[in-house]
């Protein structure tokens, strides 16, 4: 299942969104009892590396928008730091719809032409949904890999909660998956037929094969000692966190031995989950999520 890439942008008014929410349908609510709340802001999501960001930029329209309108190349970390809080507020904020509309409106000016001359817009429902799809897929995969093995019912629940999450942006959801089975078909189709090695995506994983440049604040002698372990760990997290199809498209090196070591690390992480749950909340989750649980009078 996919949405036509040349479909005109279709932004919903609050009244339309409210009407859709009142119908219920396949969506499940977000809140302190939801699985999206439980896992999306868990710090162990980082163990999957930049999977979501890289896969986003492999969709031609989205990668081109990032290249044309952002500071991705000049200020990669700064861009990520600015993007994360508004998205977290869409999930955890007291008014998630207002936060979602704010995120949507950030993208109104992001439009242009692809190298072949075709127009693109960040608010094209197909492009916008792909960005959202990478977040929910990242959450499901990271949880299943590093936190606990999810049942099919839990994956379904996470996905149906993500429908409510997407509706908060006020962008048309016509043609989007409505069950986890449909989402898996949509996702595999994207991996097999739609993603490319766009320059923004290749840049986002470049350090995994070339190594990190020395940060200005670190003395060259100290960096000489640190760079090898830092580069080794970041390469494993980044390349290991990509789906096999993504690795192939981007030409990232991987083999069976690395995969076995990666899976051993993942199994250790899952085994340590009971101990992780005993840590203070500020060590386990993003502060925005913690404040949301406190607002609801619940423990994260």
From TrEMBL:
Any one GO MF annotation of this record: oxidoreductase activity
Record-linked Pfam families: MPAB_Lcp_cat
Domain annotation ER-bound oxygenase mpaB/mpaB'/Rubber oxygenase catalytic: ranges: 37-271
Chain spans, region Disordered: 1-25
Annotated InterPro entries: MPAB/Lcp_cat_dom (IPR018713)
PANTHER family according to UniProt: BLR2777 PROTEIN, ER-BOUND OXYGENASE MPAB_MPAB'_RUBBER OXYGENASE CATALYTIC DOMAIN-CONTAINING PROTEIN
Name by which UniProt lists this protein: DUF2236 domain-containing protein
